[in-house]
């Protein structure tokens, strides 16, 4: 069975180029092309894709908002953001919304095809440049937050970093990818944080951190 793909981009020439590239692979089937998030959601009511390639900057409904809506309505759909290198303001928001990864628009044809297949298989797609931006953003923790968490829960520097990422909505795989850790190591850190914070799960930990950070 082929992987069903939807392309969402307000630049028609780019959408057509991507469609042409994906059509060269027998395992992929582009079932729809949309020019913005509103049109994409309308088309998904008729046929739901497996993977959505989604531009970040679009009129009517941008990629971040669209990601949240797609994941709310169709949790199993994998969303890959199409981004330019200066879209850093959107990246963390899209992660929190459930995006499976990011592709830079200068990606090669072979890499694009592989990325779609890997996302469908459950992998997180993070080019090195994007991963660095996520890491840098994760490290931009205010000293006030660091001090509060360290003082309240006796967390190590690495635990503080990961705790903030949990608080901001990163899942385990995204934390591991952003910090260049194995998923097992990330889980170990996260379990230690739950223990120190006094929560049984992610939701409990976030509630307790919100109280500490005044969020």
From TrEMBL:
Chain ranges of the HTH luxR-type domain: 148-213
Keywords assigned: DNA-binding, Phosphoprotein, Transcription, Transcription regulation
Domain Response regulatory residues, every copy: 4-120
Keyword Iron: no
GO MF entries: DNA binding
A biological process term (GO) from this entry: phosphorelay signal transduction system
Superkingdom per UniProt: Bacteria
InterPro entries: CheY-like_superfamily, NreC/VraR/RcsB-like_REC, Sig_transdc_resp-reg_C-effctor, Sig_transdc_resp-reg_receiver, Tscrpt_reg_LuxR_C, WalR-like
Pfam families: GerE, Response_reg
Modification 4-aspartylphosphate occurs at: 55
Entry-linked PROSITE patterns: HTH_LUXR_2, RESPONSE_REGULATORY
PANTHER family from the UniProt entry: TRANSCRIPTIONAL REGULATORY PROTEIN LNRK, TWO-COMPONENT RESPONSE REGULATOR
Functional summary from the UniProt entry: May play the central regulatory role in sporulation. It may be an element of the effector pathway responsible for the activation of sporulation genes in response to nutritional stress. Spo0A may act in concert with spo0H (a sigma factor) to control the expression of some genes that are critical to the sporulation process.
Designated name of the protein: Stage 0 sporulation protein A homolog
